[in-house]
Each structure stands twice: as C-alpha cells, then as structure tokens.
C-alpha cells in the first residue's frame, strides 16, 4: 500500500496504519537527524517526535501531496523547534568527526575512512541550508521537487543551492585534503 493511502487511513483515525509508515521511515529519519545533529540519542527522540506530530497533525495532511515530503517538513520543524526551545544555534550543535560515511582490505578501508573524514569535515563547514539540501538530495536520495517541497523552495532554487553547495564543498574538501 502506498504511503499516501496509509496516511489517509491514519487521517481517518486508523492509527495502526502508522506502524507501516514507521517501519518504512524510522531508520531514514534517524539517519537524517543523525547526519544533522551527530547525536544518536537526540536523533531517536526527534524521530519519535516526528511520529507524535504526524498523529497530532494528521488532519492537516492533504491526500494530493507527497507523504514523504510532508513528513520531512515535519522533521525539519521538529529539529528547529528542539534547538529553539533549548536555545542552541544549529551551527553550534554540529560536531565534525562523528559521522561515519564509509561502508576491502585493511589498507583500502583506512583510505576510505580518511577520505570520508575529510569529506565529512568539508560538509560540516557548509552553511546549514547548503548542508541540509545535500543531505536531503544525496543521502536521502530525494528529487529536487521533493527537496523543494520540504524546504519551501522552487526546483530552480534547489538546483542553485545544490550547485553552490557542491562548489563550496569542493573548495572545502580541497582545503582539508591538502592539510
């Protein structure tokens, strides 16, 4: 059953349909939050908050819209609200060196880990809006239209941000790899 059909059931009060959506998305949301917060415990809490808000605001879901985009918009709001309530700047919460972007031989694995660390450091130096657009587009494998819907941007603005992010990322990556 599609996400949208499951969410329509949830909207009608059949909350057991939410368990299928949870099964489909809790790991993806956790990884999204982990890449943004670098805090496993906080990421787990934020995922729970997303699903609590889905229940709370289920009446606001429009059946003609993508469930995934609607859910990630809730996720962005949950994260922003967490930092606002705790008076933490999002940039201050980023701690480079805690992401594991790798997935051979021992030597090859060490090289991958080093390149991954350099890339991670470069990503962490990006402006938050560029970092987020890359995480949604690259790591969450969303289309430009989905990213735009989530972030409240046009597709052309998403393309511009991704282009600028990649440009800055190349610049940052080259700086860190030269060290």
What is the H/E order? HHHHHHHHH
The overall pLDDT average reads 82
CATH superfamily grouping of the largest domain? RNA polymerase sigma factor, region 2, helix turn helix motif
Number of domains in the coordinates? 2
Class from helix and strand fractions: mainly alpha
Low-confidence stretches: 93-104
**Beta strands, count:** 0
The N- to C-terminal Cα distance equals 51 Å
Tally of helical segments: 9
Gyration radius (Cα, Å) is: 18 Å
User: CATH class of the largest domain, please?
Assistant: Mainly Alpha
The main sheet comes to:
none
Shape: globular
Keywords:
single chain; mainly alpha; 2 domains; 9 helices; 0% strand
What's the short story on this structure?
By secondary structure, this protein is an all-alpha fold. It is 74% helix and 0% strand.
Notes on the structure:
The radius of gyration is 18 Å and the shape is globular. It has helices at 3-11, 18-37, 40-56, 67-85, 90-93, 106-124, 128-139, 144-151, 155-178. The termini are far apart. Helix 2 packs across helix 3 (40-56) and helix 8 crosses helix 9 (155-178). By secondary structure, the chain is an all-alpha fold. Residues 93-104 have low confidence and may be disordered. It has 2 domains: 1-95, Rna Polymerase Sigma Factor, Chain: A (Orthogonal Bundle), CATH 1.10.1740; 98-179, Arc Repressor Mutant, subunit A. The longest helix is centred in the last third of the chain and has 24 residues, at 155-178. The protein contains 9 helices and no strands.
């Amino acid at each position: 059953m599609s996400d949208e059909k499951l969410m329509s059931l949830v909207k009608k009060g059949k909350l057991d349909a939410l368990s299928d959506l949870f099964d489909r998305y809790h790991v993806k949301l956790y990884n999204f939050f982990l890449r943004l917060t670098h805090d496993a415990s906080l990421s787990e809490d934020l995922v729970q908050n997303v699903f609590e808000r889905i229940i709370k605001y289920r009446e606001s879901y429009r059946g003609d819209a993508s469930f995934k985009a609607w859910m990630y918009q809730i996720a962005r709001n949950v994260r922003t609200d967490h930092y606002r309530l705790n008076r933490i700047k999002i940039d201050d919460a980023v701690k480079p060196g805690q992401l594991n972007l790798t997935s051979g031989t021992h030597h090859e694995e060490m090289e991958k880990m080093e390149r991954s660390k350099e890339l991670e450091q470069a990503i962490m130096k990006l402006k938050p809006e560029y970092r987020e657009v890359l995480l949604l587009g690259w790591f969450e494998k969303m289309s430009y239209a989905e990213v735009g819907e989530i972030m409240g941007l046009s597709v052309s603005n998403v393309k511009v941000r991704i282009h600028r992010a990649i440009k800055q990322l190349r610049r940052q990556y080259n700086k860190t790899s030269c060290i």
